[in-house]
Amino acid sequence: MEKRTRLIDVAKMANVSTATVSHVINNTRYVSEEVRQRVFATIKELHYYPSDIARSLTTKNTKIVGIIISDIQNPFYGLLIRCIEEVLLESDYNIILASNDETDLKEDIHLKTFFSRRVDGLILASASEDISFLEVM
Q1: Measuring CA to CA, which residue among 121, 128, 123 is closest to residue 105?
Q2: Domain boundaries 59-136, CATH class
Q3: pTM, rounded to two decimals
Q4: pLDDT tens for residues 13-64?
């Protein structure tokens, strides 16, 4: 597997600081057009893409919504998930999808995974009648 390009690699090759690369990517400070073009050319050449994990440490947002449905084979959910995904993509959100197969155990496993990954939202077709546990999560 090829080594992932890091922001520091882009900075070195473009002969700028990592802060400058960050400012170019996030458009958070004025950077000359010449430097901007050089950074973007380097990004393209190195096939660099920012780390969403690193970004989420700063922004406290993962831009991910977890969806747990009861039965992934139920055709109703296909259309529903497609519509949800279209709406979320308009706001640059992605989804993580899981099926609880109408069991509390699988639902609990998926919920723990979603919360450990700090999803920004949750859409849940719960297998349980008691969802009071969501109040503390």
Answers
A1: 128
A2: alpha beta
A3: 0.73
A4: 999 999 999 999 989 999 999 999 999 999 999 999 888 888 888 888 999 9
For the chain, domain boundaries: 7-50, 59-136
SS3 at position 31: coil
If you ran DSSP here, which 8-state letter would residue 119 be given?
-
Taking the mean position of all CA atoms in its chain, how far away is CA 77? Answer: 22
**Residue in the structure block whose two tokens are 């660099």:** 48
- The CATH number of 7-50 is 1.10.260.40
Strands of 47-126, DSSP E: 64-69, 94-99, 121-124
Which residues is 99 bridged to in the sheet?
69
Phi, psi dihedral angles at 21 (to 5 degrees): -60, -45
* Residue whose structure tokens are 């609880």: 100
